Amino acid sequence: MIFVTVGAQMPFDRMVRAVDEWAGERRRGDVFAQIGPTEWRPGHVKWTQFLQPPEFAQRVAEAKVIVAHAGMGSIITAMTTGKPILVMPRRGELKETRNDHQLATAQRFLELGKVAVAFDENELKDRLDRLDEVAAAGRVGPWASESLLSTVRGFISGEKTP
Amino acid sequence: MNSRASPQTEPKRILAIASGGGHWVQLLRLRPAFEGHRVTYVTVNEGYRTDVAGERFHLINDATRWDKFGLLKMGLRLAWIMARTRPHVVISTGAAPGYFAIRLGRILGARTVWIDSIANVERLSMTGTLVREHADLWLTQWAHLAEEGGPRYAGSVL
Q: Which domains does chain A possess?
């Protein structure tokens, strides 16, 4: 299965539509999408608006690869489950999110070797054709870095911070 | 005398708050830092309750800065939750709900922590910038964004 998610907060018609068109062209029946408030209704991929966390986790576990917007929830989920992830950043000027932070996120996590990136819908279809090339990054544990945890722990217990 | 080795400090009341998606996922990754304390989670999606099963959990509406009515509703609901919770520490990974909680927390005498989302690679978020003078501990998750007089870097949620 290919699990597609654009999060649950904002529509991402451009991405959902591109994935749906690709699935139609390639006659793929193994795509499932969480489309959030996206208005475009897919005709070729199975979809739902919002999955509760347990169902979401199950869809991820069953997926061979995750295709997502460049949101940190999706990226962190891929990293903790050891799943390969292909992301497409939302664009601020298209009102897909408030600004271009997803572009910066995608670029940085691409440099770190944690994600594959399709910067627009044409590249997305191209990358979907070569999805086997998307490799999983090293799996990370469930918690924040020890330095961040100890800083927060110290602050909570009342240690003075510099 | 308490003979247990930990916690070394008095348990604190913590209000841990985040909006949905990545903000919530990042907040959950901080949970080991809350051990030994009394945590109340506040977020925007009822479905997230199962992520913190057995813990105190409150729901608020989500709103962005363009939605004045939504923000007012959120602020009132949050004020009600916080007046009853009386947190010693308010901690947030964003976005708008965390900003309000930190402002309200300050009024109620809480100490406050803002951890700007790891999504903000090039600059701090707008909310993260606005919260600056109200956060006792003001953190970025990227070393290159830390600066003197600016946010500190102390590691990331990854």
A: 2-157 (3.40.50.2000)
